[in-house]
Amino acid sequence: MNKPKIIVTRKWPTAVEDRLRALYDVRLNESDIPMTADELKTALQTVDALLSTVTDPITADILSVPNKRVKIIGNFGVGYNNIDIEAAKKEGLVVTNTPHVLTDCTADIAMLLLLMSARRGSEGDRLVRNRQWRGWAPTHMLGQKVTGKTLGLIGFGRIAQAMARKAHYGFGMKILCYAPHAPTPESLKEYQATYYATVDEVLAESDFISLHCPGGAATKHLINEQRLKLMRPSAHLINTARGDVVDSDALIRALKERWIAGAGLDVYEGEPNVVPGFLELDNVALLPHLGSATEETRVAMGNRVLDNIAAFFAGKEPGDRVV
Ligand code: DGY
Q1: Which of 243, 300, 270, 272 is nearest to 16 (CA)?
Q2: Is the distance from CB of 285 to CB of 255 less than 8 angstroms?
Q3: For residue 6, what pLDDT is reported?
Q4: 97 by DSSP, 3-state: which?
Q5: Of 148, 216, 222, 227, which sits 20 to 30 A from 45 (CA to CA)?
Q6: What pLDDT digit, counting tens, does each position of 244-293 carry?
Q7: 242 is catalytic
Q8: How far apart are CA 35 and CA 123, in angstroms?
Q9: Of 114, 124, 119, nearest to 143 (Cα)?
Q10: Residue 22, number of CB atoms within 10 A of its CB
Q11: Catalytic: 289?
């Protein structure tokens, strides 16, 4: 029997690419240059599986290309807002993602950003590198204490709960959360968390806000000017979810005019472009979408995609099917 034909849209960890080569008739992307819309369309016409990443916009237009051969899209990422899921469903395609394996690493990055923002980590690093540090002083670069403060989580899925665990048990933080559906009493009890039925209440009551909701139309600009104004002037906003959950222009104004004290961002609207206003501000810590970027996690994500497509080609239900 012929091996299924596969295209991988970006460079993946070598260990996973080796497995792909051994199992499939695969075209890898050694150059790691993202594919154009036309290249993605051609890929859908020529392969059985397209292995995309969160940086490939798989739009309704791309998915509606005629004479498709593709049957499954294995997305390398837990988020799949890069794919028009309704269109994929309409086209009868199976789509899978990679949950679980990136939970802790993404929560670690959220915690890192929280600490960087509270303790002015990026600013201090810049000062030392620019040879502007004049030595220790009682009032130099004072930040805010993290231990014992209140962390508000927007979303209470796996990554939010991993963050709750680290913050509550590691830093003695009080946990508040909002989610569209009330979490189970057991999951709240585990972190002694308090559930609020509105985003606004969590924003008003927290010293730190960490966003853990999916991207897409339903959460676009969930954090807007009006909501930023509900936060405490001493509060910090951490975003490791998706860039478009936050209205960037409103956040820049909030940071500039000190409606809030600081922010830590790993994701951006229209990334890899970053709204220039952020680059001019000292009170924002900026990372280049590193949430899941550890050796262990990226290999595990790739293996998870392989497990999903192996199940599919064996006629079984892929474990991480989203449609
Ligand atoms: C995801 O998996 O959705 C991340 O954003 C990529 O690390």
Answers
A1: 300
A2: no
A3: 98
A4: coil
A5: 216
A6: 999 999 999 999 999 999 999 999 999 999 999 999 999 999 999 999 99
A7: yes
A8: 36
A9: 119
A10: 9
A11: yes
Q: How does DSSP assign 297-315, residue by residue?
A: HHHHHHHHHHHHHHHHHTT
Q: Clarify whether 186 is annotated catalytic.
A: no
Task: Say what the pTM is.
Answer: 0.96
Q: Is the CB of 215 under 6 A from ligand 1?
A: no
> Would you say the CB of residue 305 lies under 6 angstroms from ligand 1?
no
pLDDT in tens, 125-149: 999 999 999 999 999 999 999 999 9
Residue 8 tokens, joined: 């991988």
Of the candidates 81, 90, 33, the residue with the CA atom closest to the CA atom of residue 58: 81
Ligand 1: distance of its center to the CA of 99 in Å? 9
CA Rg value for the chain: 21
Annotated catalytic residue, options 236, 242, 298, 304: 242
Q: How many CB atoms lie within 10 A of CB 36?
A: 9
Residues of the chain falling short of pLDDT 50: none
Q: How far apart are CA 179 and CA 185, in angstroms?
A: 13
